Amino acid sequence: MLWGGRFKEMLDKKALNFSSSLKYDINLLHEDIEGSIAHAQMLSSINILTKGEAQKIISGLKQISEEWENKSWQADPDKFEDVHSAVESRLYELIGETAGKLHTGRSRNDQVALDLTLWVKKRCSLIINLIIEFQKTLLEKSSLHLNTLIPGYTHLQRAQPISLAFHLLAYVEMLERDKTRFEFLKNNLSQSPLGSGALAGSTLPLDRNLTAEKLGFDSPTGNSLDSVSNRDFILDFLHSCSVGMMHLSRLSEEIIIWSTSEWNFIKLSDSYTTGSSLMPQKKNPDMAELIRGKTGRVYGNYISFSSTMKSLPLSYNRDLQEDKEPLFDSSFTYEDSLEIMNRMISTAEFNIERFTKELQGDFSLSTDLADWLVNKGIPFREAHKIVGNVVAKLESDGKNFNTANLEDLRSVSEIFDESSLKCLDMQSSLEKKITLGSPNPQHVKDRIDFWTKKLF
Ligand code: ARG
Fold first, then answer.
1. Domain check: are 195 and 298 in the same one?
2. H-only helix segments in 223-317
3. Which domain does 394 fall in, by range?
4. Which residue out of 20, 82, 319 has the highest number of ligand 1 atoms within 8 Å of its CB and is therefore the one to mutate?
5. Is 305 a member of any domain?
6. Distance from the CA of 326 to the center of ligand 1, in angstroms?
7. pLDDT value for 355
8. Which of 190, 233, 285, 333 makes the best surface tag, with the fewest CB within 10 Å?
9. Residues 285 and 409 in one domain
10. Is pLDDT at 6 greater than 80 in this prediction?
11. Are 219 and 297 in contact, with CB atoms under 8 Å apart?
12. Residue 4 has what pLDDT?
Protein backbone atom coordinates (compact mmCIF):
# COMPACT_ATOMS: atom_id res chain seq x y z
CA MET A 1 0.00 0.00 0.00
CA LEU A 2 1.39 3.40 -1.03
CA TRP A 3 -0.57 5.63 1.30
CA GLY A 4 -1.12 3.75 4.59
CA GLY A 5 0.22 6.37 7.06
CA ARG A 6 -2.98 7.94 8.31
CA PHE A 7 -5.19 4.90 7.89
CA LYS A 8 -6.07 2.48 10.70
CA GLU A 9 -7.89 -0.07 8.58
CA MET A 10 -7.17 -1.75 5.31
CA LEU A 11 -9.20 -0.93 2.24
CA ASP A 12 -12.23 -3.20 2.05
CA LYS A 13 -11.62 -6.09 -0.34
CA LYS A 14 -14.64 -5.31 -2.47
CA ALA A 15 -13.65 -1.62 -2.56
CA LEU A 16 -10.14 -2.56 -3.66
CA ASN A 17 -11.53 -4.76 -6.35
CA PHE A 18 -13.90 -2.02 -7.47
CA SER A 19 -11.21 0.62 -7.61
CA SER A 20 -8.28 -1.37 -8.97
CA SER A 21 -7.21 -0.58 -12.53
CA LEU A 22 -4.43 -3.16 -12.53
CA LYS A 23 -6.20 -5.55 -14.89
CA TYR A 24 -6.02 -2.83 -17.56
CA ASP A 25 -3.12 -0.54 -16.70
CA ILE A 26 -0.71 -3.47 -16.58
CA ASN A 27 -0.47 -2.55 -20.28
CA LEU A 28 1.47 0.51 -19.14
CA LEU A 29 4.17 -1.48 -17.36
CA HIS A 30 6.98 -0.73 -19.80
CA GLU A 31 6.16 2.98 -19.95
CA ASP A 32 5.89 3.09 -16.16
CA ILE A 33 9.36 1.62 -15.82
CA GLU A 34 10.78 3.86 -18.55
CA GLY A 35 9.44 6.92 -16.69
CA SER A 36 10.73 5.66 -13.33
CA ILE A 37 14.20 5.10 -14.72
CA ALA A 38 14.33 8.68 -16.05
CA HIS A 39 13.02 9.97 -12.73
CA ALA A 40 15.66 8.01 -10.78
CA GLN A 41 18.45 9.30 -13.04
CA MET A 42 17.22 12.83 -12.53
CA LEU A 43 16.98 12.39 -8.73
CA SER A 44 20.56 11.26 -8.78
CA SER A 45 21.62 14.26 -10.87
CA ILE A 46 20.22 16.60 -8.19
CA ASN A 47 21.82 14.50 -5.43
CA ILE A 48 18.59 13.27 -3.88
CA LEU A 49 19.70 9.75 -4.72
CA THR A 50 23.33 8.67 -4.55
CA LYS A 51 24.71 7.14 -7.73
CA GLY A 52 24.67 3.75 -6.03
CA GLU A 53 21.03 4.11 -4.95
CA ALA A 54 19.99 5.17 -8.44
CA GLN A 55 21.86 2.22 -9.88
CA LYS A 56 20.15 -0.17 -7.49
CA ILE A 57 16.71 1.23 -8.32
CA ILE A 58 17.33 1.17 -12.05
CA SER A 59 18.57 -2.40 -12.16
CA GLY A 60 15.62 -3.45 -9.96
CA LEU A 61 13.23 -1.77 -12.37
CA LYS A 62 14.86 -3.45 -15.35
CA GLN A 63 14.57 -6.78 -13.61
CA ILE A 64 10.82 -6.24 -13.06
CA SER A 65 10.42 -5.54 -16.74
CA GLU A 66 12.19 -8.80 -17.61
CA GLU A 67 10.30 -10.79 -14.99
CA TRP A 68 7.04 -9.55 -16.40
CA GLU A 69 8.10 -10.34 -19.95
CA ASN A 70 9.13 -13.89 -19.11
CA LYS A 71 6.14 -14.27 -16.81
CA SER A 72 8.18 -15.10 -13.70
CA TRP A 73 6.42 -12.24 -11.89
CA GLN A 74 2.81 -11.27 -12.20
CA ALA A 75 1.05 -8.32 -10.59
CA ASP A 76 -1.81 -9.53 -8.40
CA PRO A 77 -5.01 -7.50 -8.97
CA ASP A 78 -6.34 -8.61 -5.57
CA LYS A 79 -3.48 -6.79 -3.84
CA PHE A 80 -2.81 -3.61 -5.79
CA GLU A 81 -4.70 -0.54 -6.93
CA ASP A 82 -2.75 -0.09 -10.12
CA VAL A 83 0.42 -0.85 -12.06
CA HIS A 84 2.31 1.92 -10.26
CA SER A 85 1.76 0.39 -6.81
CA ALA A 86 2.43 -3.13 -8.09
CA VAL A 87 5.79 -2.13 -9.59
CA GLU A 88 6.85 -0.19 -6.53
CA SER A 89 5.94 -3.08 -4.25
CA ARG A 90 7.94 -5.52 -6.38
CA LEU A 91 10.87 -3.10 -6.26
CA TYR A 92 10.72 -3.24 -2.44
CA GLU A 93 10.83 -7.03 -2.61
CA LEU A 94 13.84 -6.89 -4.90
CA ILE A 95 15.97 -4.09 -3.44
CA GLY A 96 14.52 -3.32 0.00
CA GLU A 97 14.14 0.13 1.61
CA THR A 98 15.94 2.06 -1.18
CA ALA A 99 12.82 1.48 -3.26
CA GLY A 100 11.06 4.00 -1.03
CA LYS A 101 13.22 6.82 -2.44
CA LEU A 102 12.02 6.43 -6.02
CA HIS A 103 8.73 8.23 -5.52
CA THR A 104 10.45 11.39 -4.20
CA GLY A 105 8.86 14.48 -5.74
CA ARG A 106 6.50 12.37 -7.81
CA SER A 107 2.82 11.58 -7.56
CA ARG A 108 0.91 8.85 -9.32
CA ASN A 109 -0.93 11.73 -10.93
CA ASP A 110 2.02 12.92 -13.02
CA GLN A 111 3.24 9.33 -13.27
CA VAL A 112 0.07 8.05 -14.92
CA ALA A 113 -0.15 11.12 -17.17
CA LEU A 114 3.38 10.38 -18.35
CA ASP A 115 2.79 6.65 -18.83
CA LEU A 116 -0.30 7.33 -20.92
CA THR A 117 1.48 9.94 -23.03
CA LEU A 118 4.34 7.55 -23.77
CA TRP A 119 1.93 4.70 -24.50
CA VAL A 120 -0.24 6.70 -26.88
CA LYS A 121 2.87 7.98 -28.68
CA LYS A 122 4.14 4.44 -29.25
CA ARG A 123 0.72 3.22 -30.33
CA CYS A 124 0.46 6.04 -32.87
CA SER A 125 3.70 4.84 -34.48
CA LEU A 126 2.49 1.26 -34.53
CA ILE A 127 -0.86 2.20 -36.06
CA ILE A 128 0.82 4.42 -38.67
CA ASN A 129 2.87 1.39 -39.77
CA LEU A 130 -0.19 -0.86 -39.93
CA ILE A 131 -1.96 1.73 -42.07
CA ILE A 132 1.02 1.95 -44.43
CA GLU A 133 1.10 -1.86 -44.77
CA PHE A 134 -2.55 -1.89 -45.71
CA GLN A 135 -2.13 0.98 -48.17
CA LYS A 136 0.66 -1.02 -49.83
CA THR A 137 -1.61 -4.04 -50.24
CA LEU A 138 -4.30 -1.87 -51.81
CA LEU A 139 -1.72 -0.35 -54.14
CA GLU A 140 -0.44 -3.74 -55.24
CA LYS A 141 -3.99 -4.87 -56.02
CA SER A 142 -4.76 -1.58 -57.77
CA SER A 143 -1.82 -1.81 -60.13
CA LEU A 144 -3.28 -5.10 -61.47
CA HIS A 145 -6.66 -3.57 -62.18
CA LEU A 146 -6.21 -0.25 -63.96
CA ASN A 147 -8.45 -1.40 -66.78
CA THR A 148 -10.75 -3.71 -64.88
CA LEU A 149 -14.13 -2.12 -65.36
CA ILE A 150 -16.56 -2.26 -62.47
CA PRO A 151 -19.85 -0.50 -61.85
CA GLY A 152 -19.51 2.67 -59.77
CA TYR A 153 -22.47 3.45 -57.52
CA THR A 154 -24.31 6.29 -55.92
CA HIS A 155 -27.29 5.45 -53.67
CA LEU A 156 -26.11 1.86 -54.26
CA GLN A 157 -27.68 2.23 -57.72
CA ARG A 158 -25.57 1.63 -60.81
CA ALA A 159 -24.13 5.06 -61.72
CA GLN A 160 -21.07 5.14 -64.01
CA PRO A 161 -18.40 2.61 -64.91
CA ILE A 162 -15.12 2.98 -63.05
CA SER A 163 -12.09 0.73 -62.61
CA LEU A 164 -11.36 -1.59 -59.72
CA ALA A 165 -8.08 0.27 -59.21
CA PHE A 166 -9.96 3.56 -58.89
CA HIS A 167 -12.28 2.02 -56.31
CA LEU A 168 -9.45 0.57 -54.21
CA LEU A 169 -7.47 3.80 -54.41
CA ALA A 170 -10.35 5.66 -52.80
CA TYR A 171 -9.51 3.68 -49.66
CA VAL A 172 -5.82 4.56 -49.98
CA GLU A 173 -6.86 8.22 -49.77
CA MET A 174 -9.03 7.60 -46.70
CA LEU A 175 -6.23 5.68 -45.02
CA GLU A 176 -3.85 8.53 -45.71
CA ARG A 177 -6.13 10.91 -43.84
CA ASP A 178 -6.30 8.39 -40.98
CA LYS A 179 -2.53 8.24 -40.90
CA THR A 180 -2.27 12.04 -40.84
CA ARG A 181 -4.49 12.15 -37.77
CA PHE A 182 -2.16 9.80 -35.87
CA GLU A 183 0.93 11.65 -37.10
CA PHE A 184 -0.49 14.95 -35.92
CA LEU A 185 -1.32 13.49 -32.53
CA LYS A 186 2.09 11.88 -32.16
CA ASN A 187 3.91 15.09 -33.06
CA ASN A 188 1.75 17.03 -30.65
CA LEU A 189 2.74 14.82 -27.74
CA SER A 190 5.98 16.70 -27.35
CA GLN A 191 5.78 17.80 -23.72
CA SER A 192 6.51 15.76 -20.62
CA PRO A 193 4.10 15.95 -17.67
CA LEU A 194 6.65 14.30 -15.35
CA GLY A 195 7.60 16.59 -12.45
CA SER A 196 4.12 18.11 -12.16
CA GLY A 197 3.66 16.21 -8.88
CA ALA A 198 0.15 15.75 -7.58
CA LEU A 199 -0.98 19.08 -9.06
CA ALA A 200 1.34 21.86 -7.92
CA GLY A 201 4.90 20.83 -8.65
CA SER A 202 7.44 20.30 -5.90
CA THR A 203 9.60 22.08 -3.35
CA LEU A 204 12.46 19.86 -4.47
CA PRO A 205 14.66 21.11 -7.33
CA LEU A 206 13.41 18.50 -9.82
CA ASP A 207 15.05 18.95 -13.20
CA ARG A 208 12.06 18.63 -15.49
CA ASN A 209 14.09 19.54 -18.56
CA LEU A 210 16.35 16.59 -17.94
CA THR A 211 13.53 14.02 -17.59
CA ALA A 212 11.76 15.51 -20.62
CA GLU A 213 14.93 15.14 -22.67
CA LYS A 214 15.65 11.61 -21.44
CA LEU A 215 12.13 10.52 -22.37
CA GLY A 216 12.29 11.99 -25.87
CA PHE A 217 10.13 15.08 -25.33
CA ASP A 218 10.94 18.60 -26.54
CA SER A 219 10.15 20.23 -23.19
CA PRO A 220 8.23 19.87 -19.94
CA THR A 221 4.55 20.86 -19.85
CA GLY A 222 3.81 24.44 -18.79
CA ASN A 223 1.14 24.12 -16.10
CA SER A 224 1.15 21.31 -13.56
CA LEU A 225 -2.54 21.64 -12.79
CA ASP A 226 -3.42 21.07 -16.42
CA SER A 227 -0.76 18.38 -16.87
CA VAL A 228 -2.14 15.97 -14.28
CA SER A 229 -5.70 16.21 -15.53
CA ASN A 230 -5.17 16.54 -19.27
CA ARG A 231 -6.58 13.61 -21.19
CA ASP A 232 -7.29 15.48 -24.44
CA PHE A 233 -4.76 13.33 -26.24
CA ILE A 234 -6.70 10.22 -25.26
CA LEU A 235 -9.86 11.70 -26.72
CA ASP A 236 -7.92 12.62 -29.87
CA PHE A 237 -6.66 9.06 -30.05
CA LEU A 238 -10.14 7.60 -29.50
CA HIS A 239 -11.54 9.87 -32.18
CA SER A 240 -8.81 8.92 -34.63
CA CYS A 241 -9.51 5.23 -33.97
CA SER A 242 -13.23 5.87 -34.56
CA VAL A 243 -12.68 7.50 -37.94
CA GLY A 244 -10.20 4.77 -38.90
CA MET A 245 -12.69 2.08 -37.93
CA MET A 246 -15.44 3.88 -39.83
CA HIS A 247 -13.36 3.59 -43.01
CA LEU A 248 -12.67 -0.09 -42.40
CA SER A 249 -16.34 -0.61 -41.66
CA ARG A 250 -17.38 0.97 -44.97
CA LEU A 251 -14.98 -1.33 -46.78
CA SER A 252 -16.35 -4.26 -44.77
CA GLU A 253 -19.85 -3.38 -45.88
CA GLU A 254 -18.72 -3.43 -49.52
CA ILE A 255 -16.93 -6.73 -49.05
CA ILE A 256 -20.06 -8.22 -47.49
CA ILE A 257 -22.25 -7.03 -50.36
CA TRP A 258 -19.71 -7.99 -53.02
CA SER A 259 -19.36 -11.52 -51.65
CA THR A 260 -23.09 -12.34 -51.80
CA SER A 261 -24.15 -14.79 -54.52
CA GLU A 262 -26.31 -11.99 -55.94
CA TRP A 263 -23.29 -9.75 -56.59
CA ASN A 264 -20.54 -12.32 -56.62
CA PHE A 265 -17.78 -9.74 -57.27
CA ILE A 266 -15.30 -11.02 -54.72
CA LYS A 267 -14.25 -14.39 -53.35
CA LEU A 268 -12.76 -14.30 -49.87
CA SER A 269 -10.13 -16.80 -48.85
CA ASP A 270 -11.25 -19.69 -46.65
CA SER A 271 -8.78 -18.46 -44.04
CA TYR A 272 -10.85 -15.33 -43.43
CA THR A 273 -14.38 -16.72 -43.70
CA THR A 274 -16.36 -19.10 -41.52
CA GLY A 275 -18.94 -21.80 -42.09
CA SER A 276 -22.40 -22.30 -40.66
CA SER A 277 -23.02 -25.00 -38.05
CA LEU A 278 -26.29 -25.85 -39.75
CA MET A 279 -26.07 -24.98 -43.45
CA PRO A 280 -23.17 -26.83 -45.09
CA GLN A 281 -23.06 -24.62 -48.18
CA LYS A 282 -22.47 -21.38 -46.25
CA LYS A 283 -19.28 -19.32 -46.34
CA ASN A 284 -19.73 -16.25 -44.22
CA PRO A 285 -17.72 -13.00 -44.28
CA ASP A 286 -17.53 -12.93 -40.46
CA MET A 287 -14.28 -10.94 -40.25
CA ALA A 288 -15.78 -8.09 -42.27
CA GLU A 289 -18.97 -8.25 -40.22
CA LEU A 290 -16.98 -8.16 -36.99
CA ILE A 291 -14.98 -5.13 -38.10
CA ARG A 292 -18.29 -3.43 -38.94
CA GLY A 293 -19.74 -4.52 -35.61
CA LYS A 294 -16.74 -3.54 -33.51
CA THR A 295 -16.84 -0.05 -35.01
CA GLY A 296 -19.89 0.61 -32.84
CA ARG A 297 -17.94 -0.25 -29.71
CA VAL A 298 -15.01 1.94 -30.75
CA TYR A 299 -17.41 4.89 -31.27
CA GLY A 300 -18.83 4.09 -27.83
CA ASN A 301 -15.39 4.38 -26.27
CA TYR A 302 -15.12 8.01 -27.37
CA ILE A 303 -18.61 8.82 -26.09
CA SER A 304 -17.94 7.01 -22.85
CA PHE A 305 -14.69 8.74 -21.99
CA SER A 306 -15.68 12.19 -23.23
CA SER A 307 -18.71 11.91 -20.94
CA THR A 308 -16.41 11.02 -18.05
CA MET A 309 -14.35 14.14 -18.74
CA LYS A 310 -17.05 16.69 -19.19
CA SER A 311 -17.68 17.79 -15.62
CA LEU A 312 -14.36 17.15 -13.93
CA PRO A 313 -13.11 20.05 -11.84
CA LEU A 314 -9.38 20.67 -11.86
CA SER A 315 -7.23 18.83 -11.34
CA TYR A 316 -6.79 15.07 -10.90
CA ASN A 317 -9.93 13.10 -10.02
CA ARG A 318 -10.12 9.35 -9.76
CA ASP A 319 -12.72 9.38 -12.54
CA LEU A 320 -9.74 9.80 -14.86
CA GLN A 321 -8.79 6.20 -14.26
CA GLU A 322 -11.77 5.34 -16.50
CA ASP A 323 -9.57 6.36 -19.46
CA LYS A 324 -7.92 2.92 -19.48
CA GLU A 325 -10.59 0.56 -20.75
CA PRO A 326 -11.71 2.71 -23.70
CA LEU A 327 -8.11 3.56 -24.61
CA PHE A 328 -6.80 0.00 -24.68
CA ASP A 329 -9.94 -1.41 -26.21
CA SER A 330 -10.04 1.08 -29.09
CA SER A 331 -6.35 0.75 -29.78
CA PHE A 332 -6.24 -3.06 -29.80
CA THR A 333 -9.49 -3.33 -31.75
CA TYR A 334 -8.38 -0.89 -34.43
CA GLU A 335 -4.91 -2.47 -34.74
CA ASP A 336 -6.40 -5.97 -35.10
CA SER A 337 -8.99 -4.74 -37.58
CA LEU A 338 -6.30 -3.13 -39.74
CA GLU A 339 -4.30 -6.34 -39.80
CA ILE A 340 -7.27 -8.60 -40.51
CA MET A 341 -8.57 -6.32 -43.25
CA ASN A 342 -5.13 -6.22 -44.84
CA ARG A 343 -4.90 -10.01 -44.90
CA MET A 344 -8.48 -10.40 -46.08
CA ILE A 345 -7.93 -8.08 -49.06
CA SER A 346 -4.53 -9.46 -49.99
CA THR A 347 -5.91 -13.01 -50.15
CA ALA A 348 -9.21 -12.13 -51.85
CA GLU A 349 -9.91 -12.86 -55.51
CA PHE A 350 -11.87 -10.44 -57.64
CA ASN A 351 -14.32 -11.93 -60.12
CA ILE A 352 -13.33 -9.85 -63.13
CA GLU A 353 -15.52 -11.66 -65.65
CA ARG A 354 -18.53 -11.05 -63.51
CA PHE A 355 -17.84 -7.30 -63.39
CA THR A 356 -17.59 -7.12 -67.15
CA LYS A 357 -20.69 -9.23 -67.71
CA GLU A 358 -22.67 -7.18 -65.28
CA LEU A 359 -21.80 -3.96 -67.10
CA GLN A 360 -22.59 -5.23 -70.59
CA GLY A 361 -25.30 -3.13 -72.11
CA ASP A 362 -26.49 -1.38 -68.99
CA PHE A 363 -27.26 2.32 -69.08
CA SER A 364 -24.32 3.51 -67.02
CA LEU A 365 -22.84 5.45 -69.95
CA SER A 366 -25.89 7.75 -70.15
CA THR A 367 -23.92 10.74 -68.80
CA ASP A 368 -21.25 10.20 -71.47
CA LEU A 369 -23.97 10.33 -74.13
CA ALA A 370 -25.33 13.54 -72.59
CA ASP A 371 -21.79 15.01 -72.64
CA TRP A 372 -21.65 14.14 -76.38
CA LEU A 373 -24.78 16.27 -76.89
CA VAL A 374 -23.24 19.10 -74.84
CA ASN A 375 -20.28 19.06 -77.23
CA LYS A 376 -22.82 19.58 -80.04
CA GLY A 377 -23.99 22.76 -78.29
CA ILE A 378 -27.10 21.36 -76.57
CA PRO A 379 -27.65 22.80 -73.07
CA PHE A 380 -26.96 20.13 -70.47
CA ARG A 381 -30.51 20.12 -69.05
CA GLU A 382 -31.86 19.49 -72.56
CA ALA A 383 -29.21 16.81 -73.20
CA HIS A 384 -30.19 15.11 -69.92
CA LYS A 385 -33.82 14.99 -71.10
CA ILE A 386 -32.95 13.62 -74.53
CA VAL A 387 -30.81 10.82 -73.08
CA GLY A 388 -33.55 10.08 -70.56
CA ASN A 389 -35.93 9.61 -73.49
CA VAL A 390 -33.42 7.36 -75.25
CA VAL A 391 -33.14 5.15 -72.14
CA ALA A 392 -36.93 5.00 -71.75
CA LYS A 393 -37.39 4.09 -75.41
CA LEU A 394 -34.71 1.40 -75.38
CA GLU A 395 -36.12 -0.04 -72.18
CA SER A 396 -39.61 -0.24 -73.64
CA ASP A 397 -38.21 -1.87 -76.80
CA GLY A 398 -36.40 -4.44 -74.64
CA LYS A 399 -33.02 -3.10 -75.78
CA ASN A 400 -29.97 -1.65 -74.03
CA PHE A 401 -26.86 0.37 -74.94
CA ASN A 402 -25.21 -2.76 -76.26
CA THR A 403 -27.95 -3.60 -78.71
CA ALA A 404 -28.97 -0.01 -79.58
CA ASN A 405 -28.32 1.26 -83.12
CA LEU A 406 -28.24 4.73 -84.64
CA GLU A 407 -31.89 4.56 -85.68
CA ASP A 408 -32.95 4.02 -82.09
CA LEU A 409 -31.10 7.18 -81.08
CA ARG A 410 -32.30 9.21 -84.05
CA SER A 411 -35.91 8.29 -83.36
CA VAL A 412 -35.52 10.39 -80.20
CA SER A 413 -33.37 13.18 -81.68
CA GLU A 414 -32.11 13.91 -85.19
CA ILE A 415 -28.91 15.34 -83.76
CA PHE A 416 -27.38 11.91 -83.11
CA ASP A 417 -24.90 10.70 -85.72
CA GLU A 418 -22.52 7.77 -86.17
CA SER A 419 -19.95 9.22 -83.71
CA SER A 420 -22.49 9.25 -80.86
CA LEU A 421 -22.47 5.45 -80.86
CA LYS A 422 -18.84 5.52 -79.77
CA CYS A 423 -20.00 6.87 -76.41
CA LEU A 424 -21.74 3.60 -75.78
CA ASP A 425 -18.56 1.56 -75.90
CA MET A 426 -17.87 0.44 -72.35
CA GLN A 427 -14.24 -0.54 -72.91
CA SER A 428 -13.11 2.93 -74.01
CA SER A 429 -15.26 4.78 -71.51
CA LEU A 430 -12.51 5.21 -68.92
CA GLU A 431 -10.09 6.87 -71.37
CA LYS A 432 -12.78 9.38 -72.22
CA LYS A 433 -12.77 10.69 -68.66
CA ILE A 434 -10.26 13.54 -68.81
CA THR A 435 -10.53 15.36 -65.48
CA LEU A 436 -7.87 15.04 -62.82
CA GLY A 437 -8.88 12.55 -60.15
CA SER A 438 -11.11 10.66 -62.59
CA PRO A 439 -10.88 6.92 -63.34
CA ASN A 440 -8.93 7.61 -66.56
CA PRO A 441 -6.34 4.79 -66.46
CA GLN A 442 -3.51 7.27 -67.03
CA HIS A 443 -4.59 9.41 -64.09
CA VAL A 444 -5.07 6.34 -61.94
CA LYS A 445 -1.63 5.12 -62.94
CA ASP A 446 -0.13 8.52 -62.03
CA ARG A 447 -1.83 8.29 -58.67
CA ILE A 448 -0.46 4.78 -58.13
CA ASP A 449 3.04 6.09 -58.99
CA PHE A 450 2.55 8.94 -56.55
CA TRP A 451 1.58 6.58 -53.71
CA THR A 452 4.30 4.07 -54.61
CA LYS A 453 6.93 6.77 -54.35
CA LYS A 454 5.51 7.92 -51.05
CA LEU A 455 4.97 4.57 -49.37
CA PHE A 456 7.54 2.08 -50.62
N1 ARG B 1 -4.72 4.39 -11.16
C2 ARG B 1 -4.77 5.82 -11.14
C3 ARG B 1 -5.24 6.30 -12.53
O4 ARG B 1 -5.13 5.58 -13.43
C5 ARG B 1 -3.41 6.37 -10.90
C6 ARG B 1 -3.43 7.69 -10.22
C7 ARG B 1 -3.93 7.57 -8.84
N8 ARG B 1 -3.90 8.81 -8.15
C9 ARG B 1 -4.57 9.01 -7.04
N10 ARG B 1 -4.46 10.19 -6.54
N11 ARG B 1 -5.35 8.12 -6.50
O12 ARG B 1 -5.73 7.39 -12.67
1. yes
2. 224-229, 232-258, 286-309
3. 357-455
4. 82
5. yes
6. 16
7. 82
8. 190
9. no
10. no
11. no
12. 66
Tell me which residues have their CB closer than 6 angstroms to ligand 1: 21, 25, 82, 108-109, 112, 316, 318, 320-321
Residue 254 lies in a domain: yes
Q: Is residue 98 part of a domain?
A: yes
- Alpha carbon separation from 115 to 48, 207, 225, 426 (Å, rounded): 23, 18, 17, 58
Domain count, the chain: 3
Q: How far apart are CA 204 and CA 405, in angstroms?
A: 91
Nearest CA to ligand 1 atom 1: 82
401 CA to centre of ligand 1 in angstroms: 69
Mean pLDDT calculated for residue range 300-321:
98
Query: How does DSSP classify residue 274?
Result: B
The C-alpha R_g of the chain, in whole angstroms, comes to 30
The confidence score (pLDDT) of residue 2 equals 64
Q: Where in the sequence numbering do the catalytic residues fall?
A: 155, 276
In degrees, rounded to 5, the angle at the alpha carbon of residue 225 between the alpha carbons of residues 34 and 125 is 40
Pairing of strands 219-220, 266-267: unpaired
Same domain as 316, residue 389: no
Does this model's pTM top 0.70? yes
User: Is residue 23 in a domain?
Assistant: yes
Ligand 1 atom 12: residue of nearest CA: 321
> Which residue among 308, 326, 351 closes a domain?
351
Q: Are residues 450 and 370 in the same domain?
A: yes
pLDDT in tens, 60-70: 999 999 999 99
CATH assignment at residue 67: 1.10.275.10
- Amino acid letter, residue 81: E
Residues 98 and 118 in one domain: no
